[in-house]
From TrEMBL:
This is Sensors of blue-light using FAD. Residues 3-96 form the BLUF domain. Gene3D superfamilies: 3.30.70.100. Signal peptide: none annotated.
Amino acid sequence: MNLVRLLYVSKLKKNKNAVKDLMDILTEAITYNSPHEIYGALYFGNGYFVQCLEGERDKLEHLFYKKIIRDPRHEQCEVIYLEPIKSRLFANWHMKYAAFNKEVMHFFKDHHLEAFNPYLLTNHTISPFINLLAKQKDGISTLRLK
């Protein structure tokens, strides 16, 4: 099996209901990812998305280039990390939503001297950020309460 981990960043296009768009994206991700054996986590803050996906390379590339990059809710989609893996960090989630939190904010201030902006991730900070993302609790229930 040709397993890889892909990390991409994008911006949410300005809209009237960001929470609804985020819920729709998460629902669509879970529905699509489960039968395709794709796992991962999505983090959203300051108008930015960062999503880590794990699965077979051809399935992830199809998902990114045929679906995500064409999704009208995203703009400036960019893959910043794609590496082969032997085991999954996100094996328990077809799509986990890591809620906006102080731990991630501190990570960005400590490493990039700025609030959350995933375009600032570098070769030195991508792996620690992915590990931090893997440790976050699933926040879908908190999103539904908004």
